[in-house]
Amino acid sequence: MKMISLLLVLASFRFCSFPADNATIVELFNSHSVEIEENNIEKKTTTISKGLEIISVCIKSSPQKHIISNEQGEYTIIKQGRALHFLGKLSKAFTLFERETTFYVGGWAISDKGTGNFVVFALADYKAERVFKTTRFVYDKSLNCESFCEDGFLNLEVTDNNKDGIIDLVFTGFKCIYCEGLEEGLSWKDREHLEKKPVEIKYVSHIQENQISWKESK
To answer: Which residues, in sequence order, are bridge partners of residue 208?
Structure first.
């Protein structure tokens, strides 16, 4: 799909009224190669979570697509049984794990300022709920004196360190320094980094009253 048509679809989606009508939902999903028909929509919900626009629909017959992730962070479409979830503004999304009938999907929510957090959504039936957002940036390609090296993403390792059956999230990488002394206003666009500092941010899973969350571990 051409980038121009993609941006036009996303623009029309952002400014439509919520919840979107069935015709708008059909146009949205069809434009991303997920074929559904208006008379095939059974239920729908809409969620807006700090810039992330989510439309979830339950349809009468199941499409073949499972997950489509746009690397530029413009959209992700996830199939879960007869449910389809459209998540706007989510980058590098993937399924973390499944628990009973719930999918836990994670991805990077990146702002226009060039910084981003990792967020996790619980997808159950045809509803989406954000259950976690990192308390610190794990993506930084901002035009500041300090930002994360390479493409701005910290590497994510998923492992069950506390042996509770739920994955923990460990982000590692390097922060690049572009200013020295009293310098300011310089970034990766202006010069090569002067120094690199290792970064490690850990979030340990917690289960309370059957609800899963993650807390930063110092």
So the answer is: 211
- CA dist 218 and 201 (Å) reads 8
List the structure tokens of 130.
């954000």
Q: Which runs of consecutive H residues, i.e. helices, occur in the chain?
A: 3-14, 22-30
Residue-range definition of the domain harbouring residue 179: 136-218
173 part of a folded domain: yes
- Rounded Cα distance between 72 and 183, Å, is 31
Q: Write the pLDDT tens digit of every residue in 10-64.
A: 333 333 334 568 888 888 888 877 788 888 888 887 776 655 667 888 888 766 5
Nearest Cα to 214, choosing from 97, 126, 127, 101?
Answer: 97
Domain count of the fold of the chain: 1
At residue 137 the predicted structure's pLDDT band, cuts being 50, 70 and 90, is: very high
Beta strands in 52-110 (DSSP E): 52-59, 67-69, 75-80, 83-88, 91-99, 102-110
Q: Are 60 and 42 in contact (CB under 8 A)?
A: yes
**Rounded CA gap, 148 and 140, in Å?**
5
Pick from 108, 84, 94: nearest CA to 35: 84
- Is 158 a domain residue? yes
